[in-house]
Amino acid sequence: MSIHSEVDLLRKIPLFANIDTAKLKLLAFTSERLAFPAGAILFREGERGDSAYLILSGQVDVAVNSPNGPVSVASIKEHNIVGEMALLGDMPRTATISATEPVEALKIKKDQFFQMLRDLPQMTLEIMRELAVRLNNANKELSAAHARLRDAGLK
Amino acid sequence: MSAHQTLYQYIWKHSRREQLTILVIALLAQPFYFMTLSLPKMIINGPIQGKGFDEPGATQRFLQIVFDMPDWLVGKWVMFEGYALERLPYLLALSLSFLALAGFNGFLKFLVNTMKGRLGERLLRRLRFELIDRVLRFPPNHVRRVKQSEIASMVKDEVEPLGGFTGDAIVWPVFLAGQALTAMVFIVVQNFWLGFVSGSIVVVQALVIPRLRKPILKLGKLRQLQARELAGRVGEIVDGNADIRIQGTSNWERAEIVGRLARIFEIRFELYQRKYFVKSLNNFIAQLTPFIFYAAGGYFVIAGQLDVGQLVAVIIAYKDLPGPIKELIDWDLQRQDVEIKYNQVMDQFHPEGMTEPDAHVLPPEAHESLDTIDLKSVTVADDAGFLLLENIDTQIPLNQSVAAVGPSGGGKEAFGQIFTRQFPLKDGSIRAGGGEFFALHETVVGKQIAYAGAEAYFFPTGIKENILYGLRTSTQSVTSEGKTGQKRQLREMLRTGNPTFDATADWIDYQAIGAHGAKDVLDRIIDALSFVGLENDVYQFGLQSRLDAKANKQVAQRIVDARLALHEQLEHAELNTLIERFDPASFNRNASIAENILFGASSDPVFMPQNLGRLAHFQRVVAEEGLEKLLVGMGRSIAETMIELFAELPADHPFFDEYGFIPSSELPRFQQITKRAKSGNMTYDDRASLSALPLSYVDARHRLGLITPEIRERLLAARRTFAETIPPDLKSKISFYDEGTYNDSASILDNILLGRVSYGAAQAQERVNVLIREILDKLDVRDLIIEAGLNFNCGAAGKRLSTAQRQKLSLARALIKEPKLLIVNGALANLDDEQKTQIVQRVLNHRKSRATLWILTKDDLASLFDRTLLFEQGRLKSDTVRQPVRAMAV
Questions:
Q1: How far apart are CA B636 and CA B677, in angstroms?
Q2: Contact (Cβ atoms closer than 8 angstroms) between residue B580 and residue B755
Q3: Contact yes or no for B705 and A119 at CB 8 A
Q4: How many Å apart are CA B566 and CA B582, to the nearest integer?
Q5: Residues in Cβ contact with A57 at an 8 Å cutoff, skipping those fewer than 6 apart
Q6: Which of B541, B582, B697, B825 could be disulfide-bonded to B789 (CB atoms 3.0-4.6 Å)?
Q7: Is B577 on the interface with A (CB under 8 A)?
């Protein structure tokens, strides 16, 4: 597996769609490529976050701790980035990520991630766009949840 | 400063007999010397010029011994008639006598010189030992003032000339004066006036030269001081290196040193000017005499008042006169120089308040036992006279644990320090073991009281030696039975006033800690390490260390067993991606190309990836296997990728350090090289630069996809050729990997792995660590690894250890002595609260019913102790003994 194939994989990630190949190569070259067997944990909720992961292949489960134990809240497919929130917000991990099938990921260290944000303004914009989309989705879900609660007569 | 002996008193006291022996030999040599002087005259006047051989067949008596006594006594007394010889045999006999005498004189000289050398070395040995012995007896406040490198410079360099001089101190002037006098007398006997002239010139020399030399000596003294201070400053620059750099003041240090060097240069230059002026003057005066001989003596010969033989004899005798005189003057200069040096050094080694001179001789009460330490109105002040403790009255029975608490600087720290005996009491008294605590012998206190402070000194030896250091109290002496060499050694020790201690013997006092032999001691060390929480650190040192497999065959075998067990585990599906083994038949993606070709470990830097390209054998292998094109091709890919990736990054970007095969400064050069590569006109240097790049390429890490199956086979072939054709001198420097044997050149950890932890596997390093630990515990190899870790060298003053590790080691060193009283004073200052609590609990638990005095940084641990002393403002505010009920609860 060489960085050339990684660059091809990265290209499929919406976040990097508009970034030129040389920059993607740099990202691939300077990050660590890791293989997680099914069931392996990428990181746990509450840990200090030191890196973000780009899922190159496979699928991961997102779980948060609740009073009733961990609850799976989402599933993230290949070509997505996980763990960047802890880096950007300088906060502990907000969820536990585990591999539901064998996963290949690029591990991007915190320093490297910020260095890339500084070096690659397009990527920063892409991440902002992505976060805005997530925020929008979250807002929609929140208002939908509100609506459901109201319909159920709880509010 | 108390008075010391003068140099001559010292020399006379310690080498009188040898000096006299040499003197007697030197004096006995004088008549023979006189004979060698008079023989040439006899030869020239007699057989050569024919005096006494006027008629053919005339003979002269050879070896005739005649005493010419005054007539009123016996008159002419012929003791031996001698042999009658004709002219030619007589010439031959005299010439042979001359040769024999010259040989005999040479032999005596050899004898005297050897004896002098030995004598000087003996005195030097005695003096050096005395100086170091004095350092060991210095009062503590003096030690805090002196600079170690100045002391070292004095003991090593400044006393050195004394050794050379001692042999010459008495014998040489006597010998030279004898020679000069002999020559003088001879000249006077030949011709009174010529003798008188040369005598007066000698007197002028003897009066003028020493006067001119006074300023030279003064300069010499100054130079000695400057050189010593320079040594002191060099020591400071080394010791304070980190601080100098942190403060950014290295240029100030440079300026300071430049200033010093300039002063030394000036002093030396002036010294040379004066010295060589005096030398030329001296030479000139010496040449005045022959001038007179040639002019006046020649006149007398021409006038017939002096025969030629006489003049030649005078000139020959004179040839031997300036030598001794000049040397005598030189000797006197050396004497004054050495005397100044000696006095300078001795002044530094005679401070007031040293311990008794025979402190290294163990007194009979050395085994006396302490039971209670009784402090009566103890007052302690620091060097500046500031009161640290006032009027402390208390008793410490040596069977309870005591916590000293209170505000920092309130006196608890000073209370702990009292027991080091490094700070004299200002007032009051401390009694222990039926005597004055401060008067107890060092060994008595050292054996029964152990002290762990915040600032412990460690020797640049292994951790083990440092832990056991406090147990080196069982005095071992050289015995006269034993090897033959030892007898001689012992004789010299006694002759030079050295103690007869034997540093090659085992000084560990096993009895004191109730241990039997080395294995027992190792267990104690491991216990002590686990009490202070240092066990894991030492285990890690052990894993990183190299093992001498030849000396530890069994250990090496068990590590190979651990490797095999690990590799067996790797067969399991979920582990096989963690480590890529070094398999002779396959390419290792997690190792660099250099490592793949070498396929072995070495501690020699010539095998490092960045140097490998310059190794002749490697170049041969590359040529033989036709790898050059391949390496250049890979190098070109790497260079092109690096240029593509990094060209736009700023030169100080951290990626260059972390990922760059090419440093940012080299990037433009490689840009040129790749341009030339495209147009197909690379130079030899271009190819060399490119072919060096892939050597540190690790396929799994860098993922440039350079290793095709074909290249893999070619590199494996190169690996085989490299090993098969390696020349013997290189072969001894590298150990090739082999599954079944221990690799001497690799660390223990690398030996267990015999492979590389995979780059691509998630959390591989952590999982491998756990795996290794499990296997080592199962195979019972853990203690062996710790034992290897105990050889970790602590570095100068323990600098290779972290502060926390040093503090823990200091406590472990105190603990292992199993002392009657253990004092811990700030030894855990750099640890977090949790570790501190655990260590206090473990230590107290281990030391039940023995005394422990712990100066606590935080008061909350006091509840763990039998008794608590509260210090505030230098006074003992309260003394609480814990209720026995609570004591049961712990």
A1: 8
A2: yes
A3: no
A4: 13
A5: A9, A78, A102, A103, A104
A6: B541
A7: yes
